[in-house]
Structure formats: C-alpha cells, structure tokens
Amino acid sequence: SMLPAMEEPPIGGNSSTEETGGPKESLVVIEVKKQLYLAGPLIAGCLLQQVVQMISIMFVGHLGELSLSSASIATSFAGVTGFSLLSGMASSLETLCGQAFGARQYHLLGIYKQRAVLVLTLVSAVVAVVWAYTGQILLLFGQDPEIAMGAGSYIRWMIPALFVYGPLECHVRFLQTQNIVLPVMASSGVTALSHVLVCWLLVYRLGLGNKGAALANGISYLANVSILALYIVQEHLDRPLKGRVSRHP
Length: 249
Fold this sequence. Notes:
Elements: H1 2-61, H2 65-90, H3 92-102, H4 107-132, H5 134-140, H6 145-156, H7 159-176, H8 182-205, H9 210-234
Helix pairs in contact: 1-2, 1-8, 1-9, 2-4, 2-6, 2-7, 3-4, 4-7, 5-6, 7-9, 8-9
C-alpha cells in the first residue's frame, strides 16, 4: 500500500509542471508584448526627434561644402554641450515621476515637471552663453577660421531650439512615466514630417540659407512640445488634485 503512495507524487509533480508550463509561457508572451508596447513608440519617438536635426543638415548640404561643414560641426557641438546635457538632466524625471506615479501621488507629477522645466531653462541660459562664443572656442582648438565662424553663426541661430528642447524633454518624461507613449510618437512623427516644409520655407522661400535651417529646429521643437502640452490639457493630466484618475493601474 506504500508503493502507490510513493509513486504518485512524481507523477503528480510531472503533471503539475506540464500544466504550469503553458501559463508560464503565456505570461512571458504577455510581458514581452507589454514591453514592446511601451518600448516601440518610445524608440520611434526618440528616432523621430533626432531626424529633425538630420533633415536640417540635409537641406544645408545643398548650399555648399562650407555650409555643410559648418553646420555639421555646430550640430555636433550643440549635441555634446547642450542637447545631451538637457536630455540627461530631464531623465531624472523618470525616477521622480515614476515613484510618484507608482505611489499614486499624482499631485507630485506636475510639480516635478514644472520644477524640471525651470531648472532646465536656467541651464539653457548658461549653455546659450557658451554657444554664443562657439566660433572663438573652435578657433582655440585650431579649427579652420571660415568653418569656425560658420559654425558659430549656425549654432547661434539654434539657441531658440535649446530653450524649447528642455521643456520638450520634460513633457516626454512626464507622459512616459505614466505609460502614455503613443502621443509622444505621434507628435514626433508629425513634427518630423512638417519639419521638411519648415526647412524649405526658411532656407529657400525666405532665403535665410543655413541660418533658416538652424532656426527651423527651434520651430519644429516648439510645435512638438505644443502638441504634447495640448494633449496634457485635453486629457486633464494637468489637474493633479481634483478629478485626476490614472487609466493605468
């Protein structure tokens, strides 16, 4: 009578493993789908934001080798000293807003975003001073005088984009931490498509040349952050204390 009892557990153990094998695989698939749902739009949105500056460089490329060289160096300098700095600082919202959202302290989300916008604006003012002397800085490092002066002129016309890029990154992080990613991708896509028209109008129609291409970055970033801000107001995400209910438990 003891033998059947000893044999049953291994058989029962195998059957339970087989039974739980299916659900475990399905949970993995579900989790992968959730990750792709969040990561896919975020990746697309990030790439589309970078496409904006690339489009400007492409338009400048049709103006001559000197303009292209100057714009390329200016864009690289701006990315290292300005845009990357602001993006890194804005990433702190992922931690702060993520904690507040997870703890259902929704009133803190808007507070964190507003403080981040203020801090990044102050930092942008300091970076703008550095950008104003980019030509002289490049000359100190032995850059060709014509290219250095062209890069200095191009990056000065990118200063408006600097002040808009900070709030844009803050709005993106504000929505991202609430699992709201599709509007970020959509706004970036619309901005990237319209940026072609903006560049054409400023570079060729108005005859601003490479200065117009640099200024177009600021206009497109402003359009992007305006779309996200309107979405936040429309969805009442700007009302943290009254009537603020999360759609993503």
